Amino acid sequence: MEFKGDLPELFTKAVEGDISYIFMRDLPALLKKHACTGNMALDYGCGTGVRLPFLKDQGFNVEGVDIEPDMLNQARQLHPEFSVTHIKSGNIPKPDNCFDLVFCSYVLLMIPTKAEMYQVMAEIYRVLKPGGVFVLLTAAENIYDHSRDWLLYEPIDYQPYPPTSGSTVKVKVRDSSLVFEDYYWTTEDYRSVFHEAGFVLEEHIQPLGYKGEYLEWKDELEYPNNSTFILRKPAA
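The line above is the sequence of Methyltransferase domain-containing protein; the predicted structure tokens follow.
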């Protein structure tokens, strides 16, 4: 999916809104639980920069990188206080062992092959300091299940569920014209690439909505549609 034209603006509006609530709700506590030894952070796939202020608020000196020039142009307009850099996928122009934290939100599901995913993971591993933490947010498999009734998403029913790994899948943000075209990867697909890249998986969370929250959740009360992986580069 290329974010050109008005798509960066639609993306920013969507991800700053309710669709991010469940997986962002628990992140501050998770970051404290899996504490980093320093405060240097990278947002890999920062897009329009919507998570840069969040990471700063958690005490990090953060910068961003992304492969989409139009997204970065908006990031520079919205968040000029942060450094953002245009990159090629799986190529971070930084020295080895320089970040305490790498944050990656909804990026791996836009990668079409496990080989490229491994390249990205290996590069993130390279720039993390020994003992550094990698926080990865991505979609859970359920989000594409067109039998589910989500409050905020609408899976597009055009193929049997579940699809095969690497298949193209689509999900629409309700009350929006924004459609995400992703690649379908299972938890086991992700885990295999993490292991191959050398990461240790410390925690995997698939958060649910709670009754009594300000949103009237539907299937989000019983079925997760987001995944949070906490990984660590082994200490030297």
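Note on the example: The chain has seven helices and ten strands. Strands lie at 40-44, 61-66, 84-86, 99-105, 128-139, 153-155, 168-173, 179-183, 200-205, 226-232.
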